[in-house]
Design a protein that fits this description.
Layout: E1 3-8, H1 13-17, H2 30-43, E2 50-54, H3 57-67, E3 74-77, H4 108-125, E4 130-135, H5 137-148, E5 163-167
Helix pairs in contact: 2-3, 4-5
Length: 168
């Protein structure tokens, strides 16, 4: 059995400013870096075989901080990228409440397909290993939705730098 520690990236400047980040790179705040350091401290004694991250900067930077005590490289994958919010990307979230959704937003079905591919990638690439993966709020929700075979609306949102454990 593979153990997956699924982590959401630390707080970003856009999180604070309530901007829809989507697949933009993002920049951790000092609080976000501190959140990552706290996870690093908690995970320092855990034998982790691999560190995997979204290829977006905010997730990679979080993973780099967490992986530092282990002295290991980080494997990046676009499978863990945040949902593509299309025309909503870069917009102030409260302004989107009653906005008409553009056609270029990644569908939940497409997101769940990507999440399933990520889980297959971890299972096949790291059998019987412990893996820590850093992603984003919505893709992490999709990963859990696929894993637990539940609708995304039934998965509790993850806080910044929150860790959840999945036994694959």
């Amino acid at each position: 059995m593979t153990t997956l520690y699924l982590v959401r990236h630390g707080e970003t400047v856009d999180n604070v400013n309530r901007i829809m980040q989507g697949q933009t790179q993002g920049e951790l705040t000092e609080k976000g870096r501190e959140q990552a350091r706290e996870v690093a401290e908690r995970m320092a004694a855990v034998h982790i075989a691999a560190f995997v991250s979204s290829d977006l900067k905010r997730a990679y930077d979080t993973c780099r901080i967490i992986a530092a005590p282990h002295g290991m490289d980080i494997l990046t994958t676009p499978l863990l990228r945040e949902r593509d919010w299309g025309g909503f990307t870069g917009r102030y979230i409260p302004d989107l409440k009653n906005a008409e959704w553009p056609d270029d937003i990644e569908t939940l079905d497409a997101l769940r397909v990507r999440a399933a591919k990520f889980l297959d990638f971890i299972r096949s690439g790291f059998p019987s290993a412990v893996v820590l993966a850093v992603g984003h709020g919505i893709i992490n929700k999709a990963v859990q939705s696929v894993f637990f075979d539940k609708p995304m609306g039934e998965i509790k949102p993850m806080a910044n730098a929150e860790v959840r454990v999945l036994e694959l």
